[in-house]
Amino acid sequence: MDMLEKVYNPRDVEDRLYHTWEKKGYFHAAPDPQKKPFSIVIPPPNITGQLHMGHALDEMMQDVLTRFKRMQGYCTLWLPGTDHASIATEVKIVNQMAEEGLTKNDVGRAGFLERAWAWRDQYGGRIVGQLKKLGASCDWQRERFTMDEGCNKAVNEVFVRLYEKGLIYQGNRIINWCPHCKTALSDAEVEYKEEASHLWHIRYPVVDGEGYIVVATTRPETMLGDMAVAVHPEDARYSHLIGKKVHLPLTNRDIPIVADAYVEREFGTGAVKITPAHDPNDFEVAQRHDLAVMRVMNDDGTMNDLAGAYAGLDRYDARARIVQDLQQMGVMDKIEDYTHNVGHCYRCDTTVESIISKQWFVSMKPLAAPAIEAVRSGEIRFVPERFAKTYYNWMENIRDWCISRQLWWGHRIPAWYCAECGEVIVAKEAPGVCPKCGSTRLAQDEDVLDTWFSSALWPFSTMGWPEKTADLDYFYPTDVLVTGYDIIFFWVARMIFSGLEHTGKRPFHTVLVHGLVRDAQGRKMSKSLGNGIDPLEVIDKYGADALRFSLAIGNAPGNDMRFYWEKVESSRNFANKMWNAARFVLMNLDGAPASLDAVELDIADQWILHRLDSVIESVTEHLEHYELGLAAQSAYDFAWDEFCDWYIEMAKPRLYGEDEAGKQSARAVLLAVLADILKLLHPFMPFLTEEIYQHLPGMDQESIMIAAWPRVRGGFDQARAQAMGQAMELIRAVRNVRAEMGVAPSRRTTLAVRPAAIWQQLLPETQVYIQRLAYATEVRWLAPQDAEPANAVTAVSSGAQGYMPLGELVDVDKELQRLARELEKAQGEIARSQGKLANEKFVAKAPQKVVQEERDKLTQAEETLRAVRERIENLSALKG
Length: 880
Prior knowledge:
It is built from 27 helices and 29 strands. It is of the alpha/beta class and 880 residues long.
């Protein structure tokens, strides 16, 4: 029989097995009408990306579900792919060109895109290779890219459909703007950081009256674009001023005082400046009050001509000048220190501006309504449910979505402009002539679409939509979407409304939300903190299975988790434990053992198989409910504690004995239980379980990947299995007593056992196991009426009491002499410490740490004294 190596070395196993899996086509799924489908689409990682712990957690969870369903007999598709990541990739290309002394304008759009595609070909697949190192069983034959031909066709189809329905429009609205990248940003591309700044309180003089209104702002430079001052309609402080005007300092303009419930009376002075071109909330106020909009800043963050004397200045230089001028005018009421969250571009870290700009937008209210109802009705559910509140909050307060980006890398907006008549033509293909005037002077929009626009279509565009394909019919809707809680709004919500709008079906029935992987101190992993952990480094050191299992065990849906190297080491130790257990089983097999049906099962066999049924039910139920952490823990506890630590020890007397029938039953059960444990662990630890499975005799499949998920066998004598459990409880009680008394395992004693009435008949069947595992020379069974043995130490369990002669456990006189010495030693230590701590000079002058150490020594010595006295009393009482 082919034997496992003495030591499990992941490096010798993982790449070899993964190559075999791919070569054999185990990951590939084709529509099969004889099977139920199960499908997952991968959240496509950026082509600029590198595997990080968030990816490792996300992909591990998807792989666990995929491997589980595959073994359950589903036609299982895990569809992989990558995202073109407009801004991130463009930044990479721009930086690369800068090293050559080139800019985008130097090479032109066509030349830039040629470089971008070359970059994608060279580096875009890097993260795919890293996912394979993790063991991801994706159908790589179906790998997609958000800018491939099929996805591009779907993007154009959706844009045109929404435009024709009036849901896509071009207009001037507030967007996030990066002055450095010179592009609009999605909410997901803005990172907020807490910054110390100021709150400037400025006096706006009331026109045709006395006094002034004080407004507070964190951005004085935008006051040049103020179009009103707003107060709450129920704020008695300002009710007499509503409808009047104030003079806007530093300008020649007067602006109205309006009443709007948007104003928070408790913030600042209760009066706020309304700058519609530079704040999204102010823009909404302006719409309600029919206010004009005036933008005072250029795209590069400098002030424009409407900023008057400050035109041409950088926004922060303008701020400093404006504050200085306001102080000189005497209208600066006060300046407060103020800490607030400030948005930054996620790529270049430049402070983002909220600014009005002509962009393409999606009208969101009509799309959001059915998407909200899909979750409220239970058609789509979040796991955990609490994240549905986050979803509702965003969807019910949703603003129109800015989808245009001022970049060259991405899906170019399918809109053309006629140079003759100004007609806008939106079409799936480039038009030859203007349908209005017949001119051929047409130019395509320079902008590209937000990356999220294409990824919102991912569940169905990757299945061939808008064509009616076999894949779309069979695998769509998909089943579960696994994602972190940080992109519920940006991606999950957009997939939901896109799926409902364009296919009439939900894109998935479950959204499984996980938390972040934080460092050991609970901090978010980041480049700035330098606390990131490279998953590839962990894999290289401990193996992919150890990393995967450490991320799975203890993981609860939606909760953040901390990364500990010790946890990975523990998972590696578990892998070694299973490897050694498998080696033991293989070394004690004589070919393929008989089936379970052909052997006579003893009470230990009944127990382990009954427990195996229970753990199969537990792991299966947990996985069905997406409780991956609980499933992993159940499998771990059973494999380590019950199989390795108990049953293997129970099997040894028969394996090493002369009873051939006993040997055969032990072998059959060992192999059957080991095989099922491997199957339960396979979704979490694919490499280890496959390597061991390949060495097991008589397996039904050539790979554990395509083996059937373990089934509950049933039919075992539950009473006998429970009796074995009672025997194990008694054995633990005996071991605990012996450990407390410091008795070495090599010192064996007789053991008298009085079973509880309910176990009088069955417990004696466990005698051979009690005798071996409770270190007994013999086991004597007591009837209910038998007297309790004299001078015996008692071990109590719920099903029995065990009695061990004191004299066989220890030499009482010698033990009392030894304890007397321990007593004297403890008393001396206490006296020494008390004397030292009573010395006022020592307590006053010694370092606090030294004083505390002395107090700790005193506490420990007092505890020792208490324990020794208790032990002396117990032994003296037993001695009589």
